[in-house]
Amino acid sequence: MGNKYLLKTTIIATLGGLLFGYDTAVISGTVSALKDFFIIPQGIGELEANSLLGFVVSSALIGSIIGAFSGGIISKKFGRKKGLIIAATLFLISALGSSMPELGFAPIGEGSYIHLYQFVFYRIIGGVGIGLASMLSPMYIAEIAPSDKRGALVSFNQFAIVSGILVVYFVNYSIASQGDDSWINAIGWRYMFASEAVPAIVFLVLLLLVPESPRWLILNNREEEGTDILTKINGEEKAKIILEEIKASSGHHTSLSMFSYGSLILVIGVMLAAFQQFSGINAVLYYAPEIFKSMGYGTDSALMQTIIVGVINVIFTIVAIKTVDKYGRKPLMIWGSVSMGLSMISLGLTFYFDNVGILALIFMLMFITSFALSSGPVTWVLLTELFPNKIRGKAMSLVVATTWITNYIVSWSFPVMNDSSYLTDRYNHGFAYWVYGIISIVSAVFVWKLVMETKGKSLEEIEAAWKTGQKYLFTNFYFLRSS
């Protein structure tokens, strides 16, 4: 029963990850349409237009930052489950509002560029949902999962994210195939945003079937309910052991400070989150059709190539799920970061030397493969494992907010760099990829020197290591080796 109960609960929780991926990637099929519908009619200069387009594309990330920062308060006060219900509701509102930004200001379907900021508002609303889901879904899964299955189950959330990305790539392609570019620019983009309402409703309904996090219940004086859930998942004997560990780790008073275990744990979490985004992954995922167009593909071909990117992302995320608890977190992160760096630098060189045919596609797929095997799922595994029970909510808010702040920087700055006449004349679209590649190499060194191995340890064992072993981190550069 425990495995079936755990699997059902995990699958429902990961729908938050699926919506996270769906909402962030739906924009990829609409970039040209948003530029044509909202930006070009304003008659502004190149730099201002590129900057405004970057802002529009990345506007949801502003909401994601807000959602991530508020997630700690919401998850602590209302619980992980109710926080996810709030996120699902925001996804639904955003889907409907983004597809009809003129709602309440003009007849539906008769909006124009003057409704740009209404559109941005609804994207920000969806972004708040993304921020909440990106924090609460993996944290919820980590708190219900047995230690020997936690890496795979938290990685399953990343599988849901990339599945959401792949699904929306197919949806965007299907919608785009219904008309030509002028139809997409006028109406098709609306259907792309509206399509998110379907998974949002499904997620909202299924959340009514899952329990609250047992750790949250126990830490909020609802021990009987929490113990019942632990027993269903782990069996009675192991549940008693876990209950005692949770109670021992919580102490008599809940700490209000994120710095209770020192600042180093927060620095590591923040840097892991930042490095994941500065790899350039979302420049690829959000702008993939535009990147392929710059390689000479038409709209249909560009969207089809984007689907290939999504398929590769899903396939190798599955491989990561099967290997993260076998090989450990550090080896996958180090190897993946080096491979991502080399792939991005090579991709930039293909643009620089104007050789952007099949070779550029190969390097892009190599990058996606490396990310899916390493930084994509494993960063989230590490972030959900690093922080002790008493500070997990607040610390996760900080690092997830970092994820979205750095994501926003990347998403806004990519069109500024990639479409700049100055940089294009000198580097032929290669500059941005070189920046991402160098940062990935630096992240490999960071993980090698400073990040602990957490494979096979319970959350309470990791917490105990922070209490007793962090002083060794400065002298030996790592501790808590897996047994």
Derived structural class: mainly alpha
Order of helices and strands: HHHHHHHHHHHHHHHHHHHHHH
Global Rg: 22 Å
Annotation field: number of helices? 22
Report the major sheet: none
Q: Strand fraction band?
A: under 5%
Structure characterization notes:
Helices cover 78% and strands 0% of the residues. The protein has 483 residues and is mainly α. α6 runs antiparallel to α7 (181-194) and α14 runs parallel beside α16. The longest helix is centred in the N-terminal third of the chain and has 32 residues, at 46-77. It starts with a helix and ends in a 7-residue tail after the last helix. The model is unreliable at 470-483 (pLDDT under 50).
Brief sketch in words of this structure:
The protein has 483 residues and is mostly helical.
Draw up the topology in text.
Layout: H1 2-25, H2 31-39, H3 46-77, H4 80-99, H5 116-144, H6 150-176, H7 181-194, H8 197-206, H9 214-219, H10 223-234, H11 236-250, H12 264-278, H13 281-294, H14 299-327, H15 329-352, H16 358-373, H17 375-386, H18 392-418, H19 421-427, H20 431-450, H21 459-469, H22 471-476
Helix pairs in contact: 1-4, 1-5, 1-6, 1-8, 1-10, 2-3, 2-7, 3-4, 3-5, 3-18, 4-5, 4-7, 4-8, 5-6, 5-18, 6-7, 6-14, 6-17, 10-11, 12-17, 12-18, 12-20, 13-14, 14-15, 14-16, 15-16, 15-17, 15-20, 16-17
Name a few traits of the molecule.
disordered C terminus, mainly alpha, 0% strand, single chain
